[in-house]
Amino acid sequence: MRYSVSVKFHKDFVEIDGSKIVVGIQAKPEKGKANEEVIKKIARHFKVAPSRVSIHSGARSQRKIIDIL
After folding, report:
1. pLDDT level of residue 63 (50, 70, 90 thresholds)
2. Is residue 4 a contact partner of residue 23, using CB atoms and an 8 Å limit?
3. Closest to 22 measured CA to CA, from 34, 32, 12
């Protein structure tokens, strides 16, 4: 499945509306830490391993496209 993800900083939540996901994260966007937190939260929400979640595009953006295998 492919989803559109928006990231909000200094928050802690996951909201899903159809194929759009909004994720609140605490990590700073340095050295991929924010992307790691996004992947972990989405994996936890969908009850899959983090290795099954990947960022298709937007790794350096607040708007990302992710794939869940």
Report:
1. very high
2. no
3. 12
Cα 65 to Cα 59: distance, rounded to the nearest angstrom: 9
d(CA 59, CA 69): 18
Compute the average pLDDT of residues 20-33. Answer: 94
What percent of the chain lies above the pLDDT cut of 90? 91
Strand order in the sheet with 53-57: 13-17, 20-25, 2-9, 63-68, 53-57
Domains and CATH numbers, the chain: 2-68 (3.30.1200.10)
Rg, Å, the chain Cα set: 11
Helices and strands counted in the chain (H then E)? 1, 5
